Amino acid sequence: MDLTRRVIVALDFDTAEEASAVVERLGDACQSYKIGLQLLTAAGPALATTLAEAGKDVFLDLKLFEIPTSVAAAVRAAGRRGATMVTVHATAGSRILAAAVGAAADFPRLRVVALTVVTSLTAADLAEVGVVASTEEQVTRLAQLARSAGCHGVVAAPHDAAPLRRLLGTDQLIVTPGVTLPAPDPAGTDHARPAHPVDAFRAGASHVVIGRALTRAADPRAVLAAIAEELRVSSDGTRPADQGPDTPGR
């Protein structure tokens, strides 16, 4: 499995300079990066273009939830920046999801992944906003909706990866934030349903997203190497590369 593209490093920084320093340190050990709301708001989208032009996979985690026309315009803007993934909230509904997929069609490497249930949310949080389903039921419902709308995959917690892989088959992306590492995240975690990246891959995730626990580590390359080694010696011989698609377009 090509971990350099399936482990997505989250560039959760306040400046492009800090983010670029991590990219430089990782070098060819990482080929996939996530740019989310923090860095986009602080530094704008220029780094996304820079990374794409350097041959990196760029996951623009926009979490879009707007009227269809606005969502389609944002997806096209992401495509022009060279993004390979962009997120849309599945709770936005099928019309908005389909608008995103239609806009992405103009960019052969761009994939629309639908965010199911944010990894910080619990059943109590869902109930607070009127959702009576459990997190598992809601994830399943939204994943089915996303697939029907033509999305290329979903974003979900690691513990959801196994049932989602059974539900969605082998052709859909399953992107899992909320993974944990033995070394603690210095900023703590907001994720309610975390798991180790190896467990996420073995469960059927196509990609995992790792943030501060890696980017703030003393040796980020060593962290990636340790994950690769743990996968290699996985006791049951499971090959995560067989449990889902690689990044399309590669």
From TrEMBL:
Pathway assignment: Pyrimidine metabolism; UMP biosynthesis via de novo pathway; UMP from orotate: step 2/2
Active site: 63
UniProt enzyme class: lyase
Gene Ontology annotations for the cellular component aspect, listed alphabetically: cytosol
Binding positions for substrate per the UniProt entry: 12, 34, 119, 211-212
Known catalytic reactions: orotidine 5'-phosphate + H(+) = UMP + CO2
Pfam families registered for this protein in UniProt: OMPdecase
Listed CDD domains: OMP_decarboxylase_like (cd04725)
Region (Disordered): 231-250
Residue ranges of every copy of the Orotidine 5'-phosphate decarboxylase domain listed in the record: 6-227
SMART domains: OMPdecase
Annotated GO MF terms: orotidine-5'-phosphate decarboxylase activity
Keyword field: Decarboxylase, Lyase, Pyrimidine biosynthesis
GO BP of this protein: 'de novo' pyrimidine nucleobase biosynthetic process; 'de novo' UMP biosynthetic process
E.C. designation(s): 4.1.1.23
Recorded superkingdom: Bacteria
Stated role: Catalyzes the decarboxylation of orotidine 5'-monophosphate (OMP) to uridine 5'-monophosphate (UMP).
PANTHER family referenced in this protein's UniProt entry, alphabetically: OROTIDINE 5'-PHOSPHATE DECARBOXYLASE (PTHR32119)
HAMAP family the record matches: OMPdecase_type1_B
Assembly and binders: Homodimer.
Family: Belongs to the OMP decarboxylase family. Type 1 subfamily.
Protein name listed in UniProt: Orotidine 5'-phosphate decarboxylase
Organism: Dactylosporangium siamense
Organism lineage: Bacteria, Bacillati, Actinomycetota, Actinomycetes, Micromonosporales
Gene: pyrF_1
